[in-house]
């Protein structure tokens, strides 16, 4: 009976979204407080560059605490649908690829590879369709933005 | 009054110049397309297209972005009416009776009422903006650093108060945004904060990559894998006119929606969303046939659409007069101004009259463009919705990356975009509002500077925030909002926020 009451007060619902997010935000606030020790605080009368970050981190810590304290009624993290996680991982991976490749391979090649991977591999639309789409988009947008609109875009090692 | 009309005339001279007119036109079309795409919305659209405005002069850039904003409001209504899919949050109420009218074969009438209601509300509210903004800016010229600090803090508190979900969660997001704004060089001492050896972070975390990531990339992450297709109704041109009775039924809802939307739009927060809910509830309360709501009531389309558009103009009042963004979209437009070297604030109208009056005039022009353009072209626009999402989101991702890179030619911005995209994805999954983050990021340098300048003025005494009347009043109002928002924790009763579904856990 006591175990059931204890579970009812605290953990029977598992980790809720509010509590998980609250803990993460609190951890970030503590991290900022720790890092702020390297930034001159000044005094309360003459605040330095470290004063406002510390005050904000304390505010975030307080708000996170309130969120965690009141987070029992929020949905459980385990109950959230994550059906799109594969595409999400692929999209974030594409962003990382574009960041690494854009100035090394140039705009057109980078975007071509990214779109081909997303459309053909991730979305399964076939290599022919994916190639046509990726080629058309990467070259078409390069023409539109670089040639017509004059937006600077990186060239790759092969001159395009 | 004469001076106002003269200024407006010079504004029209700017707005009707070929280049500005072209970009107003482009903005309206792009905005409508953006609004049509479910989930992309005006915020993601403006964020994605902001970098493309960098090559333009300030006035043209703001006109383009504003065109996207109110074009997206109309585009969102189109999918609501034709497909029962809201293009963005403010179009949710239009879904209910708009789609019901479509099912009765009155899609064209619903679209026309939405368009005309938006036009009337937009035009009237621009007049109100024109009349209100200059005296408000003059009043704000009396503001010093303490007043600026109090105003910015109050703006954040009001935004948090009006946002959906709990106040604590919204404040946490605002604090997070403010903290992100602390990265970079401290303006008063030149100290390099939280940069971890990355030179590009000297100027801080950019608003553009953050906004694109939080709104654009997170939306792509959340929507990826969607395969549902809805039936699309394509109305014929000759079916576009409402009947005389439908016009009669819509005129007072349009009038009420205009006033309601404008007033709510001025207040920091998601005014264009809240105004539509309040307008719908009001029209149902006032209607002689409330049972018709949900079955294709004309008032259920005309009122919310007018409110939505009027709120858009209302949101520009504090942005232009005070330099205070009342939401994420005005915050991004403010950032656009700063990128173009324009200092927002009460002096904007005096120092940049061609920008202010050109912007006002372009809103008149934009409303006309939207009305003329969108009704005949609605059949063309809805074809955009036939593009499979599997092709659409990679294209949006590529545009986003290009846009973000173009800001500073820096891959660090792409990393920031990806990081904030992941952050936004997680926060939205966990039901946190992300708009306060962008607002906090934009306002952080101003809040910190005002705070430290105030203490410099008072030789370190905090009583300066209590002894200056305007400052004290604003801070007291902010404190009252905090107490009111947490009142239900102590009384156990749901307040008005809970009644309209804004309340979450504490």
What's the topology here?
The complex is a heterodimer of chains A (160) and B (506).
Chain A: H1 2-11, H2 17-35, H3 51-69, H4 85-105, H5 107-122, H6 127-148
Chain B: H1 2-15, H2 18-36, H3 41-49, H4 58-83, H5 92-103, H6 107-140, H7 145-162, H8 167-180, E1 184-185, E2 192-193, H9 207-223, H10 244-266, H11 271-286, H12 299-322, H13 328-339, H14 348-351, H15 353-381, H16 389-408, H17 411-429, H18 435-457, H19 464-467, H20 469-491, H21 496-499
Antiparallel strand pairs in B: 1-2
Helix pairs in contact in B: 1-15, 2-3, 2-4, 2-15, 3-4, 3-9, 3-13, 4-5, 4-6, 4-12, 4-13, 4-15, 5-6, 5-12, 6-10, 6-12, 6-15, 7-8, 7-18, 7-20, 8-18, 9-16, 9-17, 10-11, 10-12, 11-12, 13-18, 16-17
Give a written overview of the molecule.
- The complex is a heterodimer of chains A (160) and B (506).
- With 160 residues, chain A is mainly α.
- Chain A folds into two domains: 13-79; 85-148, no CATH class.
- Chain A has helices spanning 2-11, 17-35, 51-69, 85-105, 107-122, 127-148.
- In chain A, helix 2 (17-35) runs antiparallel to helix 3 (51-69) and helix 4 (85-105) packs antiparallel against helix 5.
- The N and C termini of chain A lie far apart (72 Å).
- With 506 residues, chain B is mostly helical.
- Chain B has one domain (11-499).
- Chain B has helices at residues 2-15, 18-36, 41-49, 58-83, 92-103, 107-140, 145-162, 167-180, 207-223, 244-266, 271-286, 299-322, 328-339, 348-351, 353-381, 389-408, 411-429, 435-457, 464-467, 469-491, 496-499; strands at residues 184-185, 192-193.
- Chain B has a two-stranded antiparallel ribbon with strand order 1-2.
- In chain B, a hairpin with a 6-residue loop joins strand 1 (184-185) and strand 2.
- Classes of the chains: A mainly alpha (160), B mainly alpha (506).
- Chains A and B meet through helix 2, helix 3, helix 4, helix 5 and helix 6 of A and helix 8, helix 9, helix 16, helix 17 and helix 18 of B.
